[in-house]
Amino acid sequence: MKIAIIGASGWVGGAIAAEALVRGHEVTALSRDPSRLKDLQGVTGVTADLHQTVSIKRAIAGHDAVVAAVVDRAAGNTAVIPQAARTLLRLLPEVRVKRLVFVGGGGSLEVAPGQRFVDAPEFPAQYKSEALAQVAALQTFRFSSSDVAWTYVSPPPVDFFPGEKTGSYRVQGGDSVLNDENGQSRVSVADFASAIIDELESPRFVRQRFTVAY
Fold first, then answer.
1. How many helices (H) and strands (E) does the chain have?
2. Distance CA 142, CA 137 (A)
3. Distance (Å, rounded) from C-alpha 140 to C-alpha 61?
4. What is the mean pLDDT of the chain?
5. Nearest CA to 44 among 27, 58, 61?
6. Please, which residues have CB within 8 angstroms of residue 116's CB and are 6 or more apart in sequence?
């Protein structure tokens, strides 16, 4: 499979790229900053910017799927997240790419029926803007009439950490937090990346949201 990864120079996007390569897929890493692509091994690096549609269309054309791990936390521009959702839903059909996996947030997962973690008093204030931007992106997908086969995937709302692949993760469709027998929801970035490539290889959650946890 030929996979274009937007945000492959980030810690989540990089883990997804590494997992795709291990499984024998061809990976194109997209970044607006070419200097961030130089250390990526085994991928084709392409400079592209979501604000410049011509560059994105040129970069993703000819791929089987696009994975978007979009964040601009350093610049504080969380509006880029729902904007990316709108842009990709519009552009992918123009270049005949049908499959999209969008790396979402965990803050909007429900810790109890109808109770999102992002709305809880203990939710970290510094991440609220990003979490709400991810909510807007998810709503963009759910209300879209696009024929793009999108999937929105969320990590656990808190305990998402650097770590090795164990292969023991579980997946669950819908908006509820996926807890273990101890009431905890946690996963390493390597297992999260593995679940995303699983979904590309054997789709189970087309036009749905799912979450990953142990």
1. 5, 12
2. 9
3. 23
4. 93
5. 27
6. 107, 108, 109, 110, 135
- pLDDT, residue 40, reads 74
Q: How far, in Å, CA of 5 to CA of 7, rounded?
A: 6
Q: Which residues of 175-195 are buried (b: 16+ CB within 10 A; e: fewer)?
A: bebbeeeeeebbbbbbbbbbb
How many angstroms separate the CA atoms of 177 and 23, rounded? 28
d(CA 38, CA 36): 6
Dig out the tokens for 33 from the structure.
Answer: 């900053």
- For domain 2-213, the CATH superfamily is NAD(P)-binding Rossmann-like Domain (3.40.50.720)
- The angle, 0 to 180 degrees and rounded to 10, between the axes of the packed helices 128-142 and 80-94 is 30
Confidence of residue 81 (pLDDT cuts 50, 70, 90): very high
Q: Which two tokens mark 182?
A: 């101890």
pLDDT (tens digit per residue) in 151-203: 999 999 999 999 999 999 999 999 999 999 999 999 999 999 999 999 999 99
Tokens of 32: 């607006």
Please tell me the predicted confidence (pLDDT) of residue 72: 59
Contact 12, 192 (CB under 8 A): yes
Closest to 31 measured CA to CA, from 43, 19, 18, 21? 43
pLDDT of 90 strictly over 90: yes
Per residue in 14-49, pLDDT tens?
999 999 999 999 999 998 876 776 667 888 999 898
Task: Specify whether the CB–CB gap between 107 and 137 falls below 8 A.
Answer: no
